[in-house]
Specification:
By secondary structure, the chain is mainly β. The protein has a single domain, classed as Jelly Rolls (Sandwich), CATH 2.60.120. It contains one helix and eight strands; from the N terminus they run ββββββββα. The longest helix is centred in the C-terminal third of the chain and has 12 residues. It is globular. The N and C termini lie far apart (36 Å).
Length: 97
């Protein structure tokens, strides 16, 4: 299970059907033009046949697999989350000086 630092990136190509299961932290991913926010305990099944980019917003631990390791309802794309996430990430940046 990778452990990513904030702002650490990962890209996946041809990953359609794979599951991203966020074990802890906060992940932001872009899949087929949709921004998806995953929090610890949430999962999402990729739909894109192109490139998918994942970014840790906070320290995050997750799995990428053919089968979901979490139970419950999958997380759906949240278009409105982008603004909220951008505001959060700007607060996490160190101030200059």
């Amino acid at each position: 299970m990778p452990l990513f630092a904030p702002k650490q990136l990962m890209s996946l190509d041809n990953a359609k059907g794979l599951w991203i299961c966020c074990e802890r932290g906060l992940l932001w991913l872009t899949d087929d033009g949709d921004d998806v926010i995953l929090r610890g305990g949430e999962r999402y099944r990729l739909v894109s046949t192109g490139r998918v980019v994942l970014e840790a917003v906070t320290i995050a631990q997750f799995t990428v697999s053919k089968h979901s390791v979490l139970t419950g309802e999958p997380t759906l794309p949240k278009h409105r989350e982008r603004r909220r996430l951008l505001a959060l990430s700007s607060r996490l940046r160190p101030s200059p000086g």
